[in-house]
Amino acid sequence: MEELKKFLNLLKKNRLLLIIVPVATVIVTYFLVRNIPDSYVSQAQVATGIIDETRNTGLTQEMPQAQQVAQEFSNLVASMKIKKILDQVSYQLILHDLRSTKPFRKPSKQLAALSKEERQRADNEYSALYRRSRSLNLYNVFQKQLYDLIVSMKYDSERLRDKIQVFRAGDSDFISVSMESEDPELSAFVVNTLTTEFIKYYTKAVKTNQVRTNDFLRDLLAQKSETLETKMNSLRDYKVKNRVLNLDEQSKQLYAQIIDYDNKRQEAVEKTSSYAGALNEIDRKFEPGERRYLESALSGVNQSIVDTKDEISGLYDLYYKNDLDEKYMRSIDSLNQKLEREINRSSDAYITNPLNAKQSLVEQKMNLEVQMDISRYSINALERELRTLNAQFDALVPREADVQRLGMDIDIASKEYLDILNKYNESNLSNAFEVKLNVVQPAMAGLPQPSKKMLLVILSGLISGFFCVLVIFIIYYLDNSIITARDLANATQAPVLGILSNLKSAAFNLNEIWANSNNLSAYTNFKQQLRSIRYEIENEVEQKIIVVTSIEPGEGKTMLSLSLAFAWKMTNHKVLLIDGNFTNPEVSKASAGAVFLEDFIQGRTEIDESVVREGSVFILRNKGGDTALLELAVEEAIRARIALLKKIFDVIIVETSALDGMNQTKEWMLFSDGVIAVFKSGQTLNEKKKSFIDYLKGNTLFKGWVINKVPNGQE
């Protein structure tokens, strides 16, 4: 709050500057802008078809994303202001002014200086550049002159880019193009020409790109078609070479046969095991003698039976080798019947055998032996067939892998072919439609815009006023000067006993200030400040001798010393004011006393105590010159003389030299009871002053500061 108050006081102090500068700026601005011509704005709108559903062809699958839409609009807006298109507008403008009796702008000196032949030549060159959409070659001397001619009329691309505004109208499908100029016809012409040239340029670029894309896709489609055909031919040749019709069906049939033969083999193994077990049981029921008789009696019949069984076994081999052909099964059945008859004949031949009781066991054994032999032969035939089928199945596996690989190659080539075909069809469909850009609202000659002259005048005043305030603030911010008692206390970290305001009058009479008849407010305030300082010194200094000094000369030591002397005089004290400043004895010059300090210290004169009255000020002058207190007498003698003064006077004030004459001040401090330092308001502290301040703060006699000449209103 204190800082704000100080800043406001600084503004108040510089109020004339804050008034004069803005007023002068307003007046100057008024005369500068009064001849500015009126401005006219023309605007056109271009439909893009990016998000307009009414212009959608229905071929797109989905709407573009918001980010994609924003990117497309940004590209269109940036493309509208490229140099190539603006050059086309520049050519149209200069051609209009060359050919028309009413040009858009007053001819420049360069244009007016052209002869008829030169104008015609320039017209032809501009027209040729426009038809070919070429920019001017500045390395060509003649074209450089043409460029300078355009610049002289302010039709160059750089000027146009600054004047033309291109932006998307909100979130709509439209791009707005506007221009502001001094001529309504010029604004409309530029906007319409720009939109026309841009649509022409954009359409040509899109169509060229579509044709290139079509050609590329067509060539790529032919390559993919050839690749697909090659892959299909490779698969066909592989199948023909390896006699592969349908690997899936063939593998299924082979696998089914393998399962079938394996089941039959398992069944034959089981039967063989059961037959062998049954024969073992029958053999245990025969005695050796009976078995010999039976074998000798039946040897002829058995031989026939054995032969028949061999034939049956051979037929079983042929049966399994020929995939279970039925004709072999019929032969096997016939042989089985023959075997049965032979077995029965063997039984009938020996009906009267005493061993006939066991005949049935013999017959069963013979039948079982036949069945077991048949089963054994069938197992061998089945195993051979299984090995053959497994070998055929194993041969199908690598062929299947090759066929799958070739089929995968065909699938990949087919997918690539179909993708390119779809893109090629989409490209053909896109070529069938026109570019969506078109002008939906051409530019018209507009009305004059509201004048900005008054706004410029007002802004000039506000800106200049703000600039003045800113400059004052910067000065205030960078100003480290000490103005108030708070500033001094914060900077020195020492107490401030009081302040003295800056009196406007260069000379004043202390008697008049303290007279009751004087009621001037400034003097009244000054008296109150002196009373406050007197009170603070009385509280701080217990004894009588007070030394008044300052950091530098001219800070107000003499004025403070005299003022304090008169302040104590008003309290009916006997006051002695000693001029201890030998270098600059201002007090001695201002008074007319007859007693000098040098004479009193050396004992050559005395002060008549009878002439010292209560409520009076006695001044002890010095003769000046290059001297010091301790050069007048020894320290003990000086103390004795000062002790005599203490008996006579109630208060002794000693004005010494500034601290830049440190030796004189130090000598007086030896005999003082307290030191008061005067600081002039508005100073800044440097290293030298800080060293003096540190010295004072380190001295126990130092009681505080009195800040002098404080500006009014900042007490």
Structural write-up:
The chain has 715 residues and is α/β, with parallel strands linked by helices. Among the domains are: 1-38 and 453-479, no CATH class; 247-426; 485-710, P-loop containing nucleotide triphosphate hydrolases (Rossmann fold). 62% of the residues lie in helices and 10% in strands. It has 24 helices and 11 strands. The strands form 2 sheets. Strands 5-11-10-6-9-7-8 form a 7-stranded parallel β-sheet, with helices on both faces. It has a 4-stranded antiparallel β-sheet with strand order 2-3-1-4. The longest helix has 73 residues, at 359-431. It is elongated.
Largest sheet: 7 strands, parallel
What do we call the CATH homologous superfamily of the domain at 485-710?
P-loop containing nucleotide triphosphate hydrolases
SS-based class: alpha/beta
Q: Which fold does the CATH topology of the domain at 485-710 refer to?
A: Rossmann fold
User: What value does the average pLDDT take?
Assistant: 80
Count of DSSP E strands?
A: 11
Rg, rounded, reads 66 Å
Q: What would the principal axes of the Cα set say about the shape?
A: elongated
Helix segment count? 24
What topology, given as strand order, has the largest sheet? Answer: 5-11-10-6-9-7-8
Q: Detail the poorly predicted runs.
A: 290-295
Q: How would you name the oligomeric state of the polypeptide chains in this document?
A: single chain
Strand content: 5-15%
CATH C-level class of the domain at 485-710 is Alpha Beta
* CA distance, first residue to last residue: 15 Å
Tell me the CATH architecture of the domain at 485-710: 3-Layer(aba) Sandwich
Name the helicity range.
55-70%
